[in-house]
Design goal:
The protein is α/β, with parallel strands linked by helices. The protein has a single domain, classed as TIM Barrel (Alpha-Beta Barrel). Helix content is 38%, strand content 13%. The strands form four sheets. The protein has an eight-stranded parallel β-barrel, surrounded by five helices. Strand 9 and strand 10 form a beta hairpin. Helix 7 packs parallel to helix 9. It is globular.
């Protein structure tokens, strides 16, 4: 008789923690030899429901940004000054009991222009110190190599990832990182939410604002192919330089439901799902899936590959699949569905779900569905590296931040994670986004707060930068201490 024990909780050594990005927390954008990045030339949004300025970047807007030496319109230049507060912040993470801290390295701190042959020692030293501070408290760094930024000079000289020449610049950078941090960093990821490369500048660093078919252009998919090749080379480098390390990919998961049982709607949802999973098919399975052949043909995309590219993709398959999960969406074949609001509007509104202050649909069960689908499809360890609630936190009369809504959001998602583990999913960790208030990726505002730790700074950069614990801080501390058992 077949019998197997069903897991009842999270595995021993589960990587509880939080996730950030260099361009949203570090600040110090022009000191210690750091170069200007693509993230630092995107102006803050004027309308939090409209984030077109994230990807509609031109030579003119870049020139304007270069000439502006302030951070007034470019909040990612100031972040929350983690560069000078990292000891204080990591100490607070340790107080919560973090097992892991996901952060990214600013490529332009290591190679300010991106095409140098010698790295900037001051930049490497900063991350030496950050990693040492993590290890002081037993926290494993989980490092994203490129998180929505690259040296701006590579945009000006190569048009970012649109040029194959950028591969060599990237892999020179990754080789330096793997050698410098061998035995120090055990967990790496190549590109953050690599599917963002089909959205435009944020993911590719390429100026394509004159192209009128967003997300389906030759330039964007060609740029993406160069990233796939660069990622595969980096995986090979990592395995050769530090065999004990693990290196993964990272996807923004867009769980899609059919609007009705109509087979046409079901097929529309399946197609949207394929277009989301295409990226992980390449990085986990090591090959372009057949369904993309028709998509490319029907959308005028002809990829330019070199003879060894397909072999590289096979050789450079990742060790684990990291992903972000914030919401799900609904799709109809005729597109006759009420659109969801929010600044990540990829589909229809689901009447069964609540929404956040930013119009993002809250769907904890969708996380369990995603985990099961990923595990069934890929059979590699899974890592939830982003999940959280952006909200308009307010300091109450007692000087505290009572964020029960955040606790409720996270509780529901962690409960569904536990159910997925019972389903048999191999889940290695959970780093919620973002454990300390930071600059929003989408709108560059501070008002959209995710953290357990409140940072006294407003959208204009005013404030003391004082850090203070929200109610959710003690709650997450309890969750980690109990390995996810105490969610009350």
């Amino acid at each position: 008789m077949y019998s197997k024990t069903i897991p009842t909780g999270f595995p021993k050594g589960f990587l509880w923690g939080g996730a950030t990005a260099a361009n949203q927390i570090e600040g110090a954008w022009n000191i210690d030899g750091k170069g200007l990045t693509t993230a630092e030339v995107v102006q803050k949004a004027q309308d939090r429901q409209n984030i077109e300025n994230m990807n509609v970047i031109s030579k003119e807007t870049v020139a304007t940004a270069i000439a502006d030496t302030t951070d007034d319109l470019y909040p990612k230049r100031r972040g929350i000054d983690f560069y000078h507060h990292y000891k204080e912040d990591i100490k607070l993470f340790a107080e919560m009991g973090f097992k892991a801290f996901r952060l990214s390295i600013a490529w332009a701190r290591i190679f300010p222009k991106g095409d140098e042959t010698t790295p900037n020692e001051a930049g490497l030293k900063f991350y030496d110190d950050v990693f040492a501070e993590c290890h002081k408290y037993g926290i494993e760094p989980v490092v994203t190599i490129s998180h929505y930024e690259m040296p701006l000079n590579l945009t000006l000289t190569n048009n970012g990832w649109a040029s194959r020449a950028t591969i060599a610049d990237f892999t020179r950078y990754t080789e330096v990182l793997f050698k410098r941090y061998k035995g120090i960093v055990k967990y790496w990821m190549t590109f953050n939410e690599i599917n963002a490369s089909t959205w435009g500048f944020m993911g590719t660093g390429a100026l394509d604002s004159d192209l009128d078919v967003p997300g389906q252009t030759q330039l964007r998919y060609q740029a993406l192919h160069h990233e796939f090749v660069a990622s595969a080379i980096a995986v090979k480098q990592c395995h050769e330089i530090d065999p004990a390390a693990k290196i993964g990919c990272m996807l923004a998961r867009m769980q899609t439901y059919a609007n009705t049982p109509n087979p046409a709607d079901v097929r529309a949802a399946q197609l949207q799902d394929q277009l989301n999973l295409f990226f992980t098919d390449v990085q986990v399975r090591g090959e372009y899936p057949e369904y993309m052949n028709r998509f490319f043909a029907e959308n005028g995309v002809t990829l330019q590959m070199e003879s060894g590219d397909e072999a590289l993709l096979q050789e450079g398959k990742v060790d684990y699949l990291g992903f972000s999960y914030y919401m799900s969406t609904v799709t109809a074949a005729d597109d006759n569905v009420e659109k969801a609001s929010g600044n990540l509007n990829f589909g229809g509104k689901n009447p069964y779900l609540e929404t956040s202050d930013w119009g993002w649909q809250i769907d904890p069960t969708g996380l369990r569905i995603t985990l099961n689908e990923f595990w069934d499809r890929y059979r590699v360890p899974l890592f939830i590296v982003e999940n959280g609630l952006g909200a308009l936190d307010e300091v109450s009369a007692d000087g505290k931040i009572h964020d029960d809504y955040r606790i409720d959001y996270l509780r529901q998602h962690i409960q569904q994670m536990k159910e997925a583990v019972k389903d048999g999913v191999d889940l290695m960790g959970y780093t919620m986004w973002g454990p300390i208030d930071l600059i929003s990726a989408s709108t560059s505002e501070m008002s959209k707060r995710y953290g357990f730790i409140y940072v006294d700074q407003d959208d204009e950069g005013n404030g003391t930068l004082k850090r203070s614990r929200k109610d959710s801080f003690a709650w997450y501390q309890k969750v980690i201490a109990s390995n996810g058992e105490d969610l009350a």
